Amino acid sequence: MTGHGHKSGRLNLPFVGISTFGKSPFVDDWDAIEANVAILGAPFDFGTQWRAGARFGPRAIREASTLFSFGHSGAYDHEDDATYLEASVRMVDIGDADIIHTKTEESHRNIEIAVQKILTASALPVVLGGDHSVNIPCINAFKDDCDKNGPIHVVQIDAHLDFVDERYGVTQGHGNPMRRAIEKPYVSGMTQLGIRNVSSTAKEGYDDARDRGSDILSVRQVRRLGVEAVLERIPRSKRYYVTIDIDAFCPSIAAGTGTPSHGGFLYYEVLEILQGLSKRGNVVGIDLVEVAPAYDPSESTQILAAQILLNFVGFIFHNR
Questions:
Q1: Closest CA to 263 of 191, 175, 197, 192
Q2: C-alpha–C-alpha distance, residues 179 and 7, integer Å
Q3: β-strand 187-193 against 82-84: which pairing, if any?
């Protein structure tokens, strides 16, 4: 959405130039982030239990995001009669956290440090995964911020509950992040939407999640209730951290993921939940994970990811 309009002599079409997210300026110095939103890549996929490949998610999402970057001032939505992502919303891309192959602890720590730098700059962190384990360092990074500004309520949009405590010694894989998050004293609760079918979590995981204050709804339950009723279940006027696993969506529109699960959401269902959430409270952090572009030659998956994120960021700042 940034870039030069044709009046300045550069047309700068989407297929031209360097693929930063939304063609936003690249900031190399993490101690000099001056922005409302900072995009961070977390190309880590050693937490996967089946198909890897999400390490290429950030690169693919960035490239897809240029499709929506025509250099106009903002994005006008005729249904809402509103212009989103106006020039006053300063978005920067700070590149990727350094990932060290086979080293989970060190890689996660690098992600955590990067998110802390964004929060120190008072910007909204938007993290492009990577597998869902990257959420663990993202939530870890919020400790000091929450000490100052209060707890966060985690809203997860996902096919899988990701609430495994430990399995064969694994505590930091992509099946663990929501369990790691709920342990934090500064995570006040969770809303888990889209959870469905086989290969999610054992019954004990669901019981444990609900005992710890989690509200779990499947895609069918969300559809039966409707968006407004779902939003009413989410505590109002809170600080929200939103984690979006691309496998929450139907694989017919998002095949490029390691663990696809049929029966998923369609685009507008999730968009309307996110838009409603941005009106109910303050969204203070976002990650979007599990885009593995090699499994989707159509590139629909990463286009969906970029489109969801650009719209969500637009809603957040419009409704602040």
A1: 197
A2: 52
A3: unpaired
Tens of pLDDT, residue by residue over 260-307, are 999 999 999 999 999 999 999 999 999 999 999 999 999 999 999 999
User: Residue 170 is encoded by which pair of tokens?
Assistant: 């694994």
User: What is the CA angle 307-305-217, rounded to 5?
Assistant: 110
- pTM exceeds cut of 0.90: yes
Structural domain 6-319, CATH architecture = 3-Layer(aba) Sandwich (3.40)
Helix, coil or strand: residue 101: coil
Element (H, E) at 140: helix 135-140
Q: Is 89 left (phi over 0), alpha (psi -120 to 50) or beta?
A: beta
Helix (H, G, I), strand (E, B) or coil at 290: coil
Q: Are 92 and 24 in contact (CB under 8 A)?
A: yes
pLDDT tens per residue across span 103-112: 999 999 999 9
